[in-house]
Write a structure and sequence with these properties.
The structure holds 2 protein chains of 2 kinds. Chain A is an all-beta fold. Chain A is built from no helices and 11 strands. In chain A, the strands form 2 sheets. In chain A, strands 2, 4, 5, 6, 9, 10 and 11 form a 7-stranded mixed sheet that branches. In chain A, a hairpin with a 2-residue loop joins strand 5 and strand 6. By secondary structure, chain B is an all-beta fold. The mean pLDDT of chain B is about 90. Classes of the chains: A mainly beta, B mainly beta.
């Protein structure tokens, strides 16, 4: 039981490049979500999913796409990276128990 | 709309002293409330949560928080600080229990 696994842990991109941040969980959780963490701003919700095939936008969705084809995986796509997307990204998953969310270790992304 | 305000981005206490981290929320519906802790270079861990019922909630590592609806507050306390408590603490509100809206965080320093 690995919990929530995020890959990669570190990434440097050039402006305009695209990439996918991977998130996988092995706990059969229905809910999955992506957050970005920036200094002085806490964590902000980007996108979330309440189950396979269902996604919705959070507070800061612009510039990011998601899909949920399986219960286990919830990748986050940056279509054209911008320096403003330099951040630490966290994936989280949870089941029906309110608040018992499990967070991944984070992906530190730098866009130059 | 959901939002969380954490008063004090940095708090310093002496080892053995009372820890008090403040959190006020606004919510259009009765909320679920949480405190999470983040140690350096790690993801978030749930400290405690309020969903329904008793307004004084006990969490891990000796922390507790009291939900005060009249004051829209959910302050975190610990009677005696330990060096291992040094970390970043986040208050969060959720309308559903699975999508979280975080405060900007409070960095706790414990002075020996």
């Amino acid at each position: 039981n690995a919990g929530v696994t995020q890959t990669p842990k570190f990434q440097v991109l050039k402006t305009g490049q695209s990439m996918t941040l991977q998130c996988a969980q092995d706990m059969n959780h229905e809910y999955m979500s992506w957050y970005r963490q920036d200094p002085g701003m806490g964590l902000r919700l980007i996108h979330y999913s309440v189950g396979a095939g269902i996604t919705d936008q959070g507070e800061v969705p612009n510039g990011y796409n998601v899909s949920r084809s399986t219960t286990e995986d919830f990748p986050l796509r940056l279509l054209s990276a911008a320096p403003s997307q330099t951040s630490v990204y966290f994936c989280a998953s949870s089941y029906m128990d309110p608040g018992r969310a499990f967070f991944g270790q984070g992906t530190r992304l730098t866009v130059v | 709309a959901q939002s969380v305000t954490q008063l004090g981005s940095h708090v310093s206490v002496s080892e053995g002293a009372l820890v008090l981290l403040r959190c006020n929320y606004s919510s259009s519906v009765p909320p679920y409330l949480f405190w999470y802790v983040q140690y350096p270079n790690q993801g978030l861990q749930l400290l405690l949560k309020y969903t329904t019922g008793a307004t004084l909630v006990k969490g891990i590592n000796g922390f507790e928080a009291e939900f005060k609806k009249s004051e829209t507050s959910f302050h975190l306390t610990k009677p005696s600080a330990h060096m291992s408590d040094a970390a970043e603490y986040f208050c969060a509100v959720s309308p559903t229990g699975n999508q979280f809206y975080f405060g900007t965080g409070t960095s706790l320093t414990v002075i020996p």
